[in-house]
Amino acid sequence: MRQPHIVAIGGTTREDSSTGRLLAAALAMAQARGARTTLITGKAIEFPHYDPYSPAGPQDDPRIAHYLAALRDADAVIVGSPGYHGTLSGLVKTALDYIEQLRGDDRVYLDGLPVGLIATAAGWQAAVSTLQALRTIVHALRGWPTPMGLAVNTMQGDPQAACGDAMAVMIDQIFAFVERRPAPARD
């Protein structure tokens, strides 16, 4: 099996956000298991609102072009979002909206990819509802959310310590799925 490429997207524009740290920790676990990883977070996904009818396309913004190229090459994805008012942030939602640009690809959207999910919030209600919203969006994008998703209450100590075992399960599930599916055709 070729080295799997796992792409993590999300976080906030804050340099040391809990969500960004958890995405990096998940990728570190995957890297330790032999994956090639790409983290796209913070300012790297601070895209303009998605407008499918705009004359300026994603190819005009190198950040969006890099993002879409990484997703096209991905064998798995991890999406992380803070919970803002009970759902995902506008930053993460806009990044997910740009996946629409993959509609004409051989692999449409995230079709058939395992997708790990991380939702952080200053309370359980927002963390859990954000995780559910992410699952719904990933289903709409034809991805396969891992059974283990992380809802992390950042008010209860170190977020990474709080979800280490669950994160390992999520990474195991991503690898199990990637190892069972046929490798996609690559140019």
Automatic annotation (TrEMBL):
Residues 5-148 form the NADPH-dependent FMN reductase-like domain. Coiled coil: none annotated. It comes from the Bacteria. It holds the Pfam family FMN_red. Its EC number is 1.-.-.-. GO terms for molecular function: oxidoreductase activity. Keywords: Flavoprotein, FMN, Oxidoreductase. Belongs to the SsuE family. This is NADPH-dependent FMN reductase.
